[in-house]
Amino acid sequence: MITRDDVLAWLRNFRQVVGENKGYLTELDSAIGDADHGINMDRGFGAVMAKLDGVADKDISTILKTAGMTLVSTVGGAGGPLYGTFFMRAGAAVANKEELSAEDVLAALEAGLAGVQQRGKATTGEKTMVDALTPGCQAMRQAIDSGADLDQAIKAAADAAEQGMKDTIPMLATKGRASYLGERSIGHQDPGATSSYLLLRCAADTWQ
User: Fold this and answer.
1) Any idea where the domains of the chain sit in the sequence?
2) Residue 4 pLDDT exceeds 80
3) Per-residue pLDDT for 113 more than 90?
4) Mean pLDDT throughout 133-158?
5) Cα–Cα distance for residue pair 136/60, rounded to 1 Å
6) Which tens digit of pLDDT belongs to each residue from 34-53?
7) Are 178 and 33 spatial neighbours (Cβ–Cβ below 8 Å)?
8) ∠17-84-164 over CA atoms, to 5°?
9) In which element (H, E) is residue 155 found?
10) In 3D, which of 83, 144, 143, 89 has the Cα closest to residue 112?
């Protein structure tokens, strides 16, 4: 089971991962976006860290929803609303829970993904974070259905999200700022898919 402390550790570790990859994410975004994804994510999760101590004794739903609301209010561009929606929906899916089973984690991720798709009007194949999150959720579902434990299931999710991230390179962007580039968006890895992959990989590394 994943405890409240495990969830807090995941968010804190992701803050560190975002900081370490800030330049990389911004570099990816400079090719097909506003060149601010890494900067925005770093600022947003810095703000989340400032709020976590105040909810560290609350249930997991409250922690995730607090992270989401903080991201919406502090991050510009598309990243804030999309990641904010992801965490708010994920939190709503695990209402009042003090610990999470593999099924609970998957339910949170799937709810977060659905929120992102609804907010961004995006589906797979459009060169967005959906292209990493969708295969991640699908792989986790298959792993759980096959009898995998939480460690194995979240690792399967991260591995599939990594492949999904790489699969955005040959895609033509049809959503967001990158879509303005048309054919020139082909050949570049999507920054949102990259940060989404890092989010799942961080969960796998934190919870193993």
Assistant:
1) 2-207
2) yes
3) yes
4) 98
5) 21
6) 899 999 999 999 999 999 99
7) yes
8) 60
9) helix 150-166
10) 89
Residue 37, both tokens: 């994804």
The architecture (CATH level 2) of 2-207 comes to: Alpha Horseshoe (1.25)
Tokens 């810095």: give the residue: 46
Token code pair at residue 100: 């999470």
Residues 59-88: tens digit of each pLDDT? 999 999 999 999 999 987 788 999 999 999
pLDDT attached to residue 176: 81
Q: In whole angstroms, what is the distance from residue 100 CA to residue 178 CA?
A: 36
Task: Decide if 180 contacts 14 (C-beta within 8 A).
Answer: no
Tally the residues of the chain: 208
Distances in Å between the Cα of 143 and the Cα atoms of 18, 106, 183 are: 27, 11, 36
Across residues 117-131, what is the average pLDDT?
Answer: 96
Q: Please give the model's pTM, rounded to 2 decimal places.
A: 0.97
pLDDT band at 109 (very low <50, low <70, confident <90, very high): very high
